[in-house]
């Protein structure tokens, strides 16, 4: 039996053409995408396609689009062996991170890919990205898919999606995964490093609002809700009290991703620590995530992070800002108000942090 793969087109450069009048890139009818890659017919799998009603540039992605995408995967989950999502690269790491939390105990591959050059371009990177993504989603062994997680495939490398960040707007190698090695490398052969793959399993802490997690470990659970009342506060030398206070006091705010320096360091001024303390007292969750792309938060290592540690701030360890946002939105949507947010966030739920 040939694996059945569902190709989902959301938009992005991969399916774009130049508007002859304005010269700007815009999305075109998805059926033309297959027309541009007749090679797809040679693959040893059955490919079916579906598309967003209105394909979008990934800069327009919001929580409602994540839900549409999640719903498509969820509705078709039993009918396909794997899913390949064509998505703009700009916010692909965000969507990949979100999907990774929305699907707990995934038993099939969900591979996001896109391209830096449109499919119609002579020098396009779209064909290789798409063909290899489909091949990886079709990898099957012992009667089950080899990959059971949300990944990004780009320029010969397969990454765990929630470990990635878009690093380059020019090079074909647009993504990197600084704190976790690639899961697979495409050379003459497709080399999947099975040791690195996510082995699945439940959220080791119960995050469900009402339901019990005492379920068979083979059952995938789809949780599409996300809470958007969050903000990223990136520190920079010269940041003012006025700005920090205005952000911390946003009406209805539930979470702050605090992008700190180095191993989780921040200004020691009393107004700064005070603003954070006030927010924490109002039950705003604050995550300490480093601005460095590689390495981990280690609160207490320097004097400039001792106060944050004393406040009981949540450590993001080596999580990316993209994954931290998605994880926070997910936990805020599903965790009871009284739950131990710090414990849940500091646990690796989908392989997004090295703890
Ligand atoms: N602006 C495009 C998008 O993210 C870029 C791309 O497709 O890579 O939708």
Whole-number count of domains: 2
Please identify, by name, the CATH architecture of the largest domain.
Answer: 3-Layer(aba) Sandwich
Strand order of the largest sheet: 4-1-5-7-10-11-14-15
Write the CATH fold name of the largest domain. Answer: Rossmann fold
Q: Output the CATH homologous superfamily of the largest domain.
A: L-asparaginase, N-terminal domain
Report, as a whole number of angstroms, the end-to-end distance.
39 Å
Structural class of the secondary elements? Answer: alpha/beta
What is the H/E string? EEEHEHEHEEHEEEEEEEEEEHEHEHEHH
**What characteristic shape results from the CA principal axes?**
globular
How many DSSP E strands? 20
- Average pLDDT, all residues: 90
Biggest sheet descriptor: 8 strands, mixed
Measured by DSSP, the beta-strand proportion falls in 15-25%
Question: What does the model show?
Answer:
By secondary structure, the chain is an alpha/beta fold. The chain has 2 domains: 4-196, Rossmann fold; 228-345, Rossmann fold. It has 9 helices and 20 strands. The chain has an 8-stranded mixed β-sheet, with helices on both faces. A 4-stranded parallel β-sheet has the order 17-18-19-20, with helices on both faces. Strands 2-3 form a two-stranded antiparallel sheet. Strand 17, helix 5 and strand 18 form a beta-alpha-beta unit. Helix 3 (92-102) runs parallel beside helix 8 and helix 5 runs parallel beside helix 6 (270-281). The two termini are 39 Å apart. The model is unreliable at 208-217 (pLDDT under 50). The structure holds aspartic acid (ASP). The site of aspartic acid has 10 residues, from loops. Residues 11-13, 57-59, 88-90, 114 line the site of aspartic acid.
């Amino acid at each position: 039996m040939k694996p059945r793969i569902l190709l989902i087109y959301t938009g992005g450069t991969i399916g774009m053409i130049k508007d002859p009048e304005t010269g700007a890139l815009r999305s075109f009818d998805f059926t033309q995408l297959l027309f541009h890659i007749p090679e797809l017919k040679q693959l040893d799998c059955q490919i079916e396609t579906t598309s967003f009603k209105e394909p979008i540039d990934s800069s327009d992605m919001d929580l409602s689009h994540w839900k549409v995408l999640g719903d498509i995967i969820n509705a078709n989950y039993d009918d396909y062996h794997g899913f390949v999502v064509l998505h703009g690269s700009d916010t692909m790491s965000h969507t990949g991170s979100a999907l990774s939390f929305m699907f707990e105990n995934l038993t099939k591959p969900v591979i996001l890919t896109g391209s830096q050059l449109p499919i119609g371009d002579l020098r396009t990177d779209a064909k290789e990205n798409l063909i290899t993504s489909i091949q990886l989603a079709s990898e099957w062994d012992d009667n089950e898919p080899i990959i059971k997680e949300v990944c990004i495939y780009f320029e010969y490398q397969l990454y765990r999606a929630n470990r990635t960040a878009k690093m380059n707007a020019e090079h074909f190698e647009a993504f990197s995964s600084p704190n976790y090695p690639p899961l697979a490398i495409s050379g003459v052969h497709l080399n999947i490093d099975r040791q690195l793959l996510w082995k699945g399993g439940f959220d080791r802490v119960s995050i469900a609002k009402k339901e019990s997690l005492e379920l068979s470990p083979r059952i995938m659970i789809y949780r599409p809700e996300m809470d958007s009342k969050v903000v990223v506060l990136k520190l920079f030398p010269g940041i003012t009290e006025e700005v920090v206070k205005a952000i911390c006091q946003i009406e209805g705010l539930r979470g702050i991703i605090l992008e700190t320096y180095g191993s989780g360091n921040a200004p020691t001024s009393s107004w700064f620590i005070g603003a954070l303390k006030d927010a924490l007292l109002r039950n705003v969750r604050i995550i300490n995530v480093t601005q460095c792309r590689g390495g981990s938060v280690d609160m207490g290592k320097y004097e400039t992070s001792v106060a944050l540690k004393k406040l009981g701030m949540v450590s993001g360890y080596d999580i990316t800002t993209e994954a931290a946002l998605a994880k926070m939105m997910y936990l805020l949507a599903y965790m009871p108000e009284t739950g131990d947010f710090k414990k849940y966030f500091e646990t690796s739920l989908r392989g997004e942090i090295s703890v």
